Amino acid sequence: MKDRVGLWIDHEQAVIVSVGDRGESTQKIESGARHVEYRGAQRSKVAYSAQYGQGDDQLDKRFTEQLNKYYDQVAALLRGAASILIFGPGEAKSELHARLEREKGPPRKVQLEPADRMTDHQIAAKVRKHFESESGGE
Question: Among 90, 89, 111, which Cα is nearest to 100's?
């Protein structure tokens, strides 16, 4: 059982750091989700849709399906954790948190924090520091 898990997440990837009695492990998951942003003139949007034979709704639906699979993978790796720290830029952390709230299972402590892009070493250090200070205050 993983006691404590911290993860940095955005729509492209998640870096998951598990901290337990046996030490620390890190895993990465790539989302594979690519959202098409339409910048500039309407012409580029039409050209992209025509090139790939898809309209905006189909592209948005595909992106959402890819994110759902990604969040399922990440949530599966968090099962069994008693305490979870989720941090990162943007909306992915809140979207994952909402998904975790809907899951049935034993209660767990989940905390959210904003964070910018970080290296894997910075992520691991933040997770270690968070859980060291959390256990030190008990």
Answer: 111
Q: Which two tokens stand for residue 43?
A: 């012409």
pLDDT digits (tens, 9 = 90+) for 31-54: 988 765 554 444 444 444 445 555
Q: Give me the domain span that covers residue 57.
A: 4-136
pTM confidence score: 0.79
Q: In this structure, are residues 70 and 40 in contact, taking their beta carbons and an 8 Å threshold?
A: no
C-alpha to C-alpha distance for 97 and 62, rounded to whole angstroms: 21
Single-letter amino acid code for the residue at 30: E
Identify the H or E element spanning 15. Answer: strand 13-20
* Total number of domains constituting the chain: 1
Average pLDDT over every residue of 93-108: 90
Query: Which CATH number do you get for residue 49?
Result: 3.30.420.60
Rounded alpha-carbon distances, angstroms, from residue 91 to 16, 22, 96, 117: 17, 32, 9, 14
Helix (H) or strand (E) holding 86: strand 83-88
- Local structure of residue 136 (DSSP, 8 states): H
Q: How many CB atoms lie within 10 A of CB 39?
A: 7
